[in-house]
Amino acid sequence: MAAEIHPRPQTRKPVLLSKIEGFQDVVNTAVIIPKEDGVISVSQDRTIRVWLKRDSGQYWPSVFHTMPARRFSYQEFVLSEDYNQMTPARTYQAHQVGVTVVLFVLEMEWVLSTGQDKSFTWHCSESGQQLGIYRTTAWVSGLQFDVETRHAFVGDHSGQVTILKLEQDNCSLVTTFKGHTGNVTALCWDPVQRVLFSGSSDHSIIMWDIGGRKGTAIELQGHNDKVQGLCYAPHTRQLISCGSDGGIVIWNMDVTRQETPEWLDSDSCQKCEQPFFWNFKQMWDSKKIGLRQHHCRKCGQAVCGKCSSKRSTIPLMGFEFEVRVCDSCHGSITDEERAPTATFHDSKHSIIHMQYEPTRGWLLTSGTDKIIKASTCSHSIELRISAEPELRIMCLWKTFRSLSMGSFILWRKNSRIS
């Protein structure tokens, strides 16, 4: 029975609003300042810069700070109300080698971080005290946190995702799961649907149904290169992903998706029964040359090339590009099942980092071309944010392969979204 397709929200093509240029080095991270026409960037030249939009419509630098070289720590800064002064507030000595990810949890007043020393730590943002540490099997490249359950989701370079239960001064291992053949490059958590999205260097995205407790894992295949960033828009139920090839994909997640089948093992084609090339006995008995084995992406059966000569998209299984299917499955796939569930867009630069700001529907990308691009790609919704006496930045510094890179997170102290 075909899966039901719900009406999907209107998707608008990302429209470029402005560019920020003039960087001396590659921009590793850039974020939009909440409720302001401003952007904060961190570059490989160790500079943190605040950019404000002027009357001309162009972004101009307001203030910058240079991070110290080869510091395996992250720093907290306070920005003045006019964004013309950046004051260091605290330095967190969290790791022995480069820091890879920093995440601030406002509700808990925790700062979570991971490093190339294969450790995951969390600190109290009020006192700066380290609360706990957990050793991972590989250095971590993705980190998300669920406030309700206090679960930390840690993705590493082995392709594994680890779920930890955090307490004030200790943590416990909940479970681990692995579905990628490459390293995890990005994680995104939807606390409403209780779904975790993971992107990888193997070009794939996996949607893990954590809340359903059934172990469901849905694959999304829509990139031709490494997945660099993931963002989720809960009000439209759309997943936004970007790749190092410059591709931006907007996925409609308001559909009933299907798991891809497991590939079956067989010594002969499960359609025509011709032997595969390692089945010497059947080859000898039938006096036939063995064939190469393939698999149908829809049913998972082991088939030969002649019985799987057709190609088709299967969007509800996550295959937005044409893939190999057996002849019988090709005939059973309806036009409705071939209807795309994602739109594809070219950012025209190799993306390193992406941020989606749902309040205004802005998409910010930074690339290897030393340019930040601000685009609008979705209908915005209105959020109310309470009094915000000061803006704080958490900035990390990391060194990898003798190349210095910076990244940061941003929040407004004592703010709550209602």
From TrEMBL:
GO cellular component, one term: early endosome
Pfam families: FYVE, WD40
WD repeat extents: 20-51, 177-210, 220-254
Residues in FYVE-type domain copies: 263-334
Superkingdom, taxonomy of origin: Eukaryota
UniProt-listed GO biological process terms: positive regulation of fat cell differentiation
InterPro entries: WD40/YVTN_repeat-like_dom_sf (IPR015943), WD40_PAC1 (IPR020472), WD40_repeat_CS (IPR019775), WD40_repeat_dom_sf (IPR036322), WD40_rpt (IPR001680), WDFY1/WDFY2 (IPR042234), Znf_FYVE (IPR000306), Znf_FYVE-rel (IPR017455)
Statement: the UniProt record of this protein carries the keyword Zinc-finger: yes
Alphabetized GO MF terms: zinc ion binding
Presence of the UniProt keyword Phosphoprotein in the record: no
Keywords: Endosome, Metal-binding, Repeat, WD repeat, Zinc, Zinc-finger
Location within or outside the cell: Early endosome
Protein's UniProt name: WD repeat and FYVE domain-containing protein 2-like
Gene (UniProt): LOC107685482
